[in-house]
Amino acid sequence: MERHGPVRPASGTLAAAVLGLVLGGLGFSIVSQAAPLWRQPAHTKPNAIPVDVELVLAVDVSFSMTRHEQVLQRDGYRLALTSKEFLQALRGGAYGRIAVTYVEWAGRFDQHVILPWRLIEGPESADAVAAELGRAPYQRAARTSISAALNFAQGLFATSGYRGVRRIIDISGDGPNNSGGPVAPMRDVVVTNGIIINGLPLMIHHPSRGTDDAAHLDWYYKDCVTGGAGSFVVAVRGLEQFVQATRRKMVLEVAGRTPKARVIRVAARRPRISCLVGDIYQPGGTP
What we know:
alpha/beta; five-stranded mixed β-sheet
């Protein structure tokens, strides 16, 4: 019988300490759908290694992202994976380990696995994953298809070789969906399959010419892109926030919590911004 080590109950003191740490003093805009992130039932995968989280990091590499921003974005994830806050959250999980893969995406047919599924269970494996990610070449491509990125990302869980208590797609980008199918229906499919989608909208550029794509990108991500129990959005409004925002979001995901500070609850049923704001500029799109 295959053994993967005992399941260790999370310490209440440790969980509280982690939550207090990540919520204090960083000052980012947080939009949350629910309060605690209750653990979802583990899905069935024969012979899979149990982990606390299966995490897909899905990163925008469309032409609107400059090379400097790409480097900062990737460095943000590398530094987050090796930070003491992340490693402390990792130890607080029932299994004390997560599985992670890193995907770069742009248009409808541009999704590439940069880092295959890797197990992180302590400082050494975290350092190895960060180093491997740092060696990967950079790439860019045209258009922004969040819908295709979500569809691609959800397919990665079936062959991960791991069985997560939670499955999360962590998607970042600097504009709305403007290629492929509409994003909201795809978001609904992914969430129905028991996957949580968290967002990191990069609100750095001035609004695009002729549109206000960037003005309320945090609203767009909250109302049209993210979903699932406890899903949340961390908005980045300046280059200097990349590293801290990425670390904060990943700690929250691994700790299994959503932020309680400055929570903005959605009162209206209708989105505050059209989920087709970017799609109307596709060929055949209608305002």
